[in-house]
Amino acid sequence: MKRKPLILTLATAAFAGVVLVSSCKKEGQPIADRSVSATQIIPTNPLSGVLGTGHAIKDTIHLTSSVAWHLSGLVYVDSSDVLIIDAGTTIQGDKSTSSTVPGGGLVVTRGAKVLAQGTATSPIIFTSNQTAPASGDWSGIILLGNASTNHSGRVQVEGIPSNPPADATYGGSVGTNDNDNSGILQYVRIEYAGFELSTDNEINGLTLAGVGRGTTLDFIEVYKSKDDAFEFFGGTVNASHLISVDALDDMFDTDNGYRGTIRYALGLADTTRADKSQSNGFESDNNSTGSTATPITHPVYRYITIVGLPNQARASITNGQPSGTGLYGRGAQLRRNAEFDIDSAIYLGYRYGISLDSALGTTRDKFYAGTSVLKHSFVHAYVKPFVTESAGNPVTNVGFNAAANQFTIFATSATNGNTGFTTANPNANIGLANPFVRPATATNAANWIPGSLNASRTVGAFPGRVDWTSGSSGWLRWL
What we know:
mainly beta, two-stranded antiparallel ribbon, T9SS C-terminal target domain-containing protein, signal
């Protein structure tokens, strides 16, 4: 597949309560069997296999902050079960000893829920069990839901070996389960995750497959993932305050009919390594073949900042991989028949900024026709800020008026408010405070905020709404 923080100080969201009721039956079990409820379980540490007391029991499983929990191999939350994780809890994924067997990881199956509600000062941390942790030490987190995708039926999520001990499929019929609820991830940090089972068959930092909009995803950082930081395989889930720091591959990857909104997101490229598939800020496909399968991938992005490399030499070189094939890609690669709606975004530090790839499907033509939207966006590139592309070969600036320094496709620049820059200093015109400095402790979130007099702060809805200010930083991990 595609291989696939700024400090966000919002008041901690308060949740009135969560109803832990499910009428879903488990695979192969009659509804009557599901009427039996176990008392709340504190499981044995390390966690392994399928949690709970069996497929016929609706369990509530509780991980307390007083225990340093371990994930031994892939650990499954069974259908209709609920996993509660207390604020301040640390969960360590055990490192795999084999290139073909995933290390520790958490899989929340269809119909199950995870309730992981940390706070800004007491986050829930998923990390490596190694004293000297490294990217890819453990597998990551997978949420599987019943929301619709453009697969012809339910499929097993990628990255998991065949014949898992619990149902690892995802997706549902179009429109039927799009409000599906897989629970809550809030103030959660995921460090050093990612696993490649085989080529194009990987587990990301956070994998979201067929997840519905009833799920809450808010204040989540993925730090040094070995594949993508966040990948959305179909579904309708909305997410906010997402931070990707030093992902090997893409920061935010959407495909297979994903139609949710990603709001307030920051991505920081790893300046020391890139992936063999090329590392992008955004990557978006309808599917791997660029077919017209429905629902069409059509994510909505609002208030996004993607920070690439500090100079053109670094953005251009092959680096970081044993095979010598690692390469940085684009601020956003939009391709394979995907659609998009981007408003209020900043991209800087890649050779190419926003790329419309026409090799498979009609992503570029849909944009020309107005099906896809790009507004109020500031795009820097060392070579070209707006480019059309075919099979990885950038061709030309797309509708870019060099004299006016504006992006003008199908509407006036005054309407769209997009501006592109090609300068040696990627931040010269965009004017973020200090985008390439990573403090040892995050005390200066203003590094990724546009200067008060800069156009990128005053256009669109950026002023006062980016929520990127200094303050509560306990939930973030920085270099």
